[in-house]
Amino acid sequence: MNRGANIVLKHTCVGEDKAKDRFHEFISDRVMLYNSSRDFPSKNGTSGLAKNLTYGEISIRSCWLAAHESFLKGQEEAEVYLKELVWREFSYHLAYYTPHMLDQNWRDGWNKFPWTNSSESSDAWCRGKTGVQLVDAAMREMYVTGTMHNRGRMIVASYLTKNLMTHWKVGADWFSECLIDWDPAANAMGWQWAAGSGPDASPYFRIFNPDTQAEKFDKNLDYRIKFLAEVYSDGGQEGIDYFRAIPRGWNSSIKNPYPEPFISLADGRAHALRAYSNK
Q1: Is 3.40.50.300 the CATH number for 110-277?
Q2: Any catalytic annotation for residue 168?
Q3: Catalytic annotation on 106?
Q4: 3-state SS class at 178
Q5: Lower CB density within 10 Å: C or N end of the chain?
Q6: What's the N-to-C CA distance of the chain in angstroms?
Q7: For this structure, is 110 an active site residue?
Q8: Topology of the domain comprising 3-101
C-alpha cells in the first residue's frame, strides 16, 4: 500500500456494520442540527455516509426511512437531509435518461462556451496550491481523507470553472481520480450545477467568493488551520499529512512558501461575468 493510501485509510469507515453505526449516531445526535451545521466544514454536521452509499454498504432507502421518521417526530431539520437524498437520486434519474450528462454539457448551448482545458492554473488547483486558502484547504482535505466537505466542493468547483475559466470536466475527472466517495451521477450533477451547464444549475452570475465563504463558514480559521500547514504552524496532523499523501513528483514541501493567487478574486469574477454574459 502506498503512503497516500495509508493516510486516507485512517479516515475511512468501511463496511455495513460501521455504516449503520455511523448513521444511527447521526440520526440520534445530529440530524436535528443538520441544516444549521452542515455548511461549516470544520463541524461534524453531515452524515458522512457518501462513501458508504457509493459502495452499497448502506441503502438510500434505509437512510430515507429513518430520517423521515425523525422528521415526523418533530425534527424539522431532518427535512433538509431528506432533500439532499432526493438530490442524489435525481442525479441518477438524469444519468439514466440523459446519459450524456456524465461527460458532456447537459445543456448543449454551453458547448461553445470558452472554457479552457488543463493549464498551469488548473494544475495548481489540482495540487491545492492556488493561493486561495479556502480552496486549497478543501483540495487538501481530499488528499488526506479521500473526501471533501460539500461546501468545499461547491467552492472549489465554482473557483475552477468561473474564476479560472476551466472546463468542468477537468475538475470532474480529477475528482474521479481522488475521491473515495466518487459517484458518476452525483459527481457530474454537482459539477454541472456549479459550472452552469446542468439542469437546475447555479445561475451564471452566482460566483462563490472564497474569502466571503471563509468569513461566513470558517470565521475562526479552524478548517484552514487544519489543512494549511505551511501557513498556520498551530494546525493538526492533517496539514502535515497532505505533504506525505501527495505524489512525490509534485516536489512540494512544507518548507516551500505558500503561493500567491494566479488571479485576484475580483479580476477572476469580472472575467467570468464577461464570458457568461456573452454566452
Answers
A1: no
A2: yes
A3: no
A4: helix
A5: N
A6: 47
A7: no
A8: 1.25.40
What pLDDT, in 10s, does the model give residues 221-242? 999 999 999 999 888 899 999 9
C-beta of residue 9 within 8 angstroms of C-beta of residue 51: no
Q: Can you give the C-alpha Rg of the chain in angstroms?
A: 19
Angle at which helices 210-217 and 133-145 cross, to 10°: 70
The residue annotated as part of the active site, out of 57, 106, 110, 115, is 115
Q: Who wins on pLDDT, 274 or 39?
A: 39
Tens of pLDDT, residue by residue over 9-67, are 999 989 999 999 999 999 999 999 999 999 999 999 999 999 999 999 999 999 999 99
DSSP state of 115: -
Task: Mark whether 115 is an active-site residue.
Answer: yes
Q: What pTM, to 2 d.p., does this model score?
A: 0.94
**What's the rounded Cα separation, in Å, for the pair 196 and 161?**
9
- Whether residue 230 lies in the annotated active site: no
CB-side exposure of 278: number of CA atoms within 13 Å? 10
The residue ranges of every structural domain in the chain are 3-101, 110-277
| Alpha-carbon torsion (80, 9, 130, 169), positive or negative | negative
251 is annotated as an active-site residue: no
Catalytic residue among 168, 174, 193, 209: 168
Check 191, 193, 230, 238 and give the catalytic one: 191
Mean pLDDT throughout 157-186?
Answer: 96
